[in-house]
Amino acid sequence: MKISLGPLLYCWSKPDVYAFYEQVAASNIPLVYLGESVCSRRRQVKWADYLALARMLKTSGKQVIISTLGLLENASELGELQRQLENGEFVIEANDMAAVAMAHERQLPFVCGPSINNYNRATLDKMAQWGMQRFVMPVDLSRDWLQAVLTPMPAYEAEVIGYGHLPLAYSARCFTARLQGLAKDGCNTVCRQHPTGILTQTQEHQPLLRLNGIQTQSAACYDLRPQLTDMTAMGVAYFRVSAFSNDCIATASALTTATLVDQAPSTNACNGYWFGKPGMQWL
Q1: Is the CB of residue 7 less than 8 Å from the CB of residue 67?
Q2: At what angle do helices 75-85 and 47-59 cross, to 10 degrees?
Q3: By the number of CB atoms within 10 A of the CB, which of 122, 177, 199, 204 ranks highest?
Q4: How many helices (H) and strands (E) does the chain have?
């Protein structure tokens, strides 16, 4: 099993994004997902910048996948998706069924991202007929579900988000803008003020969710590092570390060289979905 680094899900400044991926280029992470997958209004880093970063990472020996938006809402976003699909160098991660359809029309290979509701083997087999090379398991599914899907082993690969704040849902409304009393169309990209999202709590002051623009994430860090050995035996191809801080680069790099033995859990960790339990639990 190999290690991958997921796309950066937060709104960072252009210099911070470039500095982050320069560190990634110097690491031993073999597969990197790159691109804006949350909100098209985050224009700090444009498509031309991401393409330049992808080429830089490729030159450093990385395999690069271009991640697309998880929620497509207008014609300009479809135009951007078309440019991504027709880049001529890199495979895309389709995070919306429009991306799947457009890749299929162009007979281009693609990776199915975690926001595509692939909930059974029949759906995955159909996606493979349309050009899917690998799927990222939806985060709310379990080990037992994955074991059943991988029996017998399909021709396409499986990837599991194993470390990071889980992307749970997308909304047409933006909570971050609304919190500031702003309309989504005039948000002034206020999510720049929250480089790791906005942590919400229950009335008992316990962490509940992390709000990242139009995306809702888990408050706790999903940590399946103790399951690495089991995943390898199951035939999982990639263990994904979600990019949410510079520390994730070190985490992913360590996993590429470490013997696949049980890892100590992170602080404020959860893993419930993997065991078919409420996701925020730690088992």
Answers
A1: yes
A2: 20
A3: 177
A4: 9, 14
CA distance 170 to 73: 12
Contacts of 114 (CB under 8 A, 6+ apart): 95, 136, 137, 138, 139, 161, 167
Distance CA 33, CA 3 (A): 11
- 136-172, pLDDT tens digit by residue? 999 999 999 999 999 999 999 999 999 999 999 999 9
pTM confidence score: 0.95
Tokens linked to 182: 């702003």
Q: How would residue 9 be classed by pLDDT, with cut points 50, 70 and 90?
A: very high
Contact status, residue 101 vs residue 70, Cβ threshold 8 Å? no
Domains within the chain, CATH numbers bracketed: 2-166+220-275 (3.20.20.70)
d(CA 4, CA 6): 6
Give the sheet arrangement for strand 207-212, strand by strand: 167-170, 215-218, 207-212, 198-201
List the structure tokens of 123: 């759906």
* Secondary-structure breakdown of the chain: helix, strand, coil percentages, each rounded to the nearest 5: 35, 25, 40
Q: Which residue has the tokens 């992170």?
A: 266
117, 144 Cβ separation under 8 angstroms: no
For residue 199, give Cα distances in angstroms to 2, 67, 210, 212, 217.
31, 25, 4, 9, 9
**Dihedral angle over CA of 22, 26, 32, 36, nearest 10:** -10
3-state DSSP call for residue 132? strand
Integer Cα distance of 185 and 133 in angstroms:
36
Residue 110 contacts residue 103 (beta carbons within 8 Å): yes
